[in-house]
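Technical appendix A lists one of the benchmark inputs used to test multi-chain prediction within the project. The record comprises two sequence entries:
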Amino acid sequence: MSDADALFRTVNLTKVYSDGSVNALVDANVLILQGQYVAVMGPSGSGKSTLLNLLGALDRPTSGEVFFQCQPLSAMRDLDHFRARQLGFVFQSFYLLPTLTAAENVQIPMFEIGCRAAQRARRAAELLELVGMSHRAGHLPRQLSVGERQRVAIARALANRPIVLLADEPTGNLDSHNAAQVLELFERLHQQQQMTVVVVTHSAEVASRAQRIIRLRDGRVIDDAPSFSTC
Amino acid sequence: MHFGTLIVKNLLRRPVRSLLTATGVALAVGAVVALLGVARGFEDSLLQVLQVHDVDIVVTRAGKTDRMTSVLDERWGQLLAGLPGVEAVTGALMDVVDFRDANLIGVFIQGWPSDSFLFDQLPLRSGRRLHPGDRQCVLLGAKLAEILQKTAGDTVQIEMHPFRVVGVYESYSLYENRSAIMPLEDFQRLMDRQGQVMAFHVKVSPGPEKAAAVETVCRQIENLSDQQGRRLPLEARPAYDYVKSTLQIRQVQAMAWVTSVIALVIGAVGMLNTMIMSVFERTHEIGILRAIGWRKGRIVRMILGESLLLCLAGATLGTLAAVAGVYWLSGLPVVAGLVQGKISPVVIGQGYAIAVLVGLAGGLYPACRGARLSPTEAIRHE
């Protein structure tokens, strides 16, 4: 394994929230390779969402560093551009814009990469096709089931052709049928497009679909091992 | 989807609030457009009177801000007429009277010498112009005659004196159409101002460099002295400058601006409140937009776009209401002839410019506040 294969590498990553009382993450050293499917597990408050936020440049560490393709995030001048171009985010509560249709929601990230309206519409149609939501393109989020909303949110995450998908409890609000569909979609993206997928989850079943499981407790990495079901 | 579509959809999310905010802006911009429109119409009308009569220079008493209090010796007109470059001079007296029987207040009466060049551009609708030797006679403007229901041959009471209507004129100016003209001598007697005029109207000889000639004549007039060598207290201004400096017009404009500024502050505060609420309600969404890579600048553009669009919609509503309102007002007998039914495009442009300022003022702080939100904190916000 060489540094060239490393997508994310964290060095002594620590996050203390502003009141100083909560050590959300303590000296976390994690390596995520290009094309890996990684699950981050742990109980509530273990620091898994904090780790995801730091990997996704949504937050700044108190100390330590996150390297993306060997570049320290702290040295990046334009983290917005980094998030828009390289990362796709999927959230537990989907967070679709309620006044926009499914197709319009998918187009939202594309405003930052300077493509024309027609290109945005074409790309959104392709992505909705990919997630099996073409027939619901003109529907508003409130007209969609929760599973459909999450598939639209995944299409939105893929809008700018990111190289990594960061998902925070993506099945947390879904029933088992919809959860299975979402996980199949992640597997398909990982296998067919060699996309790196990092999933934060409570669920052992969700984690079991990943190649690797990173376990956290009290902000510390306590285990980093292959998932038995896939290796 | 275009960026503008997103902005429109964001506003339509709370249609009642958006409508109320736009209505607030409409009231503010409508007040600005209507008040400034009326003030500007008043100014245009006065300028039109002078231009129609080929008046190049207006001479009033030096140091008098209020034209109505200007008192000049009628005989000084002969000195003015003798200056090189002056083609004609006429003294004029003006005052404001009421016709209470007709519920008409603030009607301008002008006293002109019967041989004044001002009569040359005063088309008559009926009757005749004033002749030398006419006494207790009056010419009525078409609008005034219509309101008083008088025509040539009738008698009107002015300041409790009877005057015979010898003709009705139709001026190009609304302002003049609502006034009356009587022989200067009659008016001096009526106002107890014998031998006095309020102003001299000067017509400069035509030539290729008219503007320069007007300036030269103005300087000559202001340097005139009496037989004892004392400088005459005269102030000469080109017609346009004179209108601009007229106290009543400046007062009307000042009142229009003061009222407008109050209306605009209220509009801007309303907009600020709406946009702050809107940003607060969408904290979560703004966090998501920042998380998926939207730059702060795009968040600012989105929120400012919403604010500007609301203001432009309000400006359009307000302008339409102001145009309709002023048109309706101009038809009322009590102000007929004082208010022009049309609003200048310049004033409408000012209304829109002010709406943009309101949009920026009301939207900038919420936009910056929205853009400063940390993605993680905004996403956690409930």
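Residues 29 and 354 of chain B are 7 Å apart (CA to CA). The longest helix of chain B spans residues 15-52. Comparable benchmark entries are summarised in Table A2.
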